[in-house]
Amino acid sequence: MSLNQFLEHAISPWMKKDGIESDIVLSSRIRLARNMNAFTFPILSSKEEAYTASQFIKEALASTQTSALGNAEMLTMDEMKTNDKRILVEKHLISPHLAEQSKHGAVLLSEDESVSIMVNEEDHIRIQVLTAGFDLDHTYQAASSLDDWMESHLTYAYDRQYGYLTSCPTNVGTGMRASVMMHLPALAITQQLQRILPAINQLGLVVRGIYGEGSEALGNLFQISNQMTLGKSEQDIIEDLQGVVKQLIQQERAARGSLLDHSHLKLTDRVHRSLGVLSHSHIIDSKEATRRLSDVRLGIDLGMIEGISASILNELMIVTQPGFLQRYAETVLSPEQRDERRATLIRERLKLEYMN
After folding, report:
1. Candidates 2.40.50.140, 3.40.50.2000, 3.30.565.10, 3.30.590.10; CATH matching 1-15+29-173
2. Is 270 marked as a binding-site residue?
3. Does the chain have fewer CB atoms within 10 Å around its N or its C terminus?
4. 46 is in an annotated binding site
């Protein structure tokens, strides 16, 4: 294995599996934040302290094996090119913070890219497990098993009263962030999201964009996650999130049914107009591309478009981001050049799909 294996393909192997409710819930994620008792937390540590902690963790992970990681690869941020790190962010394998601001950061990636262990991010260790579709229970089981394995080799910073100690107060307790990535185009089209999203925040959950905190919700993709961990068990957090996600799935399906029943012609026009733009444009920016891809994905899910698989849309959502475009071009591109290459890539990929 090498870095190139993780950079060559936009779709991670785990994304190719069929998932529960996968037409609306694209993925489930469990992230566990952990720190080591004997080292200063990364946000306060010096570069020397961060390096020592990083080496300690790397050696501990390298000296043992677990089936959850398989043939894993350790990648060091200091040794990677800026655009390569950007691609890992675009694939959701590392966080923007690890790519841009970490001191002596690293990531251990499983072969199928479903598991990543970030080192010296905001915390010493951030365990992330991803699965296709709506499956928080099994995702948590995998993350918990991996956490137990790591805790048998490392001494975590833990307080009997407060739980796991983390850099950010909102993570203290379980240190767990459970989240799902949802595609909610019908609720967006019918303008119901303006009412629903504030209500979700009042339930102690947070709605973010496709790349997490501070990112924009492009392509009607929304990341729904718990906001607080202190005072709640892992099961409480998962059950709270599951309840809200199930309601969102019902509301999205109802909105899709309403569009088909009452606005069928307008929806058909919207879906096929977006497909036409993607199939024939020579310049397209990332915002329009993701919006058009969202329309086409909705058309596929509703049976309005045949001959294109939903997985191709997932692939194009990632491969048309700046990091991948510049990797394929093998040079730094201006925004205008990226818009041109993005349009070309989408046209050619859709043409190839139709040919097959």
Report:
1. 3.30.590.10
2. no
3. C
4. no
Q: Does 283 carry a binding-site annotation? A: no
338 is in an annotated binding site: no
Quick one: average pLDDT of 236-244? 95
**Would you say 92 is a known binding-site residue?**
yes
Q: Is 258 annotated as a binding residue?
A: no
Kindly report the pTM of this predicted structure: 0.91
Q: Which long-range contacts (CB under 8 A, 24 or more apart) does 298-307 make?
A: 298/183, 298/185, 298/186, 298/256, 298/271, 299/271, 299/272, 299/274, 299/275, 301/23, 301/256, 302/256, 302/260, 302/267, 302/271, 304/267, 304/268, 304/271, 304/272, 305/271, 305/272, 305/275, 307/353, 307/354
Residue 179 is assigned to a ligand binding site: yes
Residue 318 among known ligand-binding residues? no
Q: pLDDT grade, residue 25 (50/70/90)?
A: very high
Is 145 annotated in some ligand binding site? no
pLDDT tens-digit map of 59-113: 887 766 665 666 788 899 999 999 999 999 999 999 999 998 888 899 999 988 9
Is 253 within any annotated ligand binding site?
Answer: no
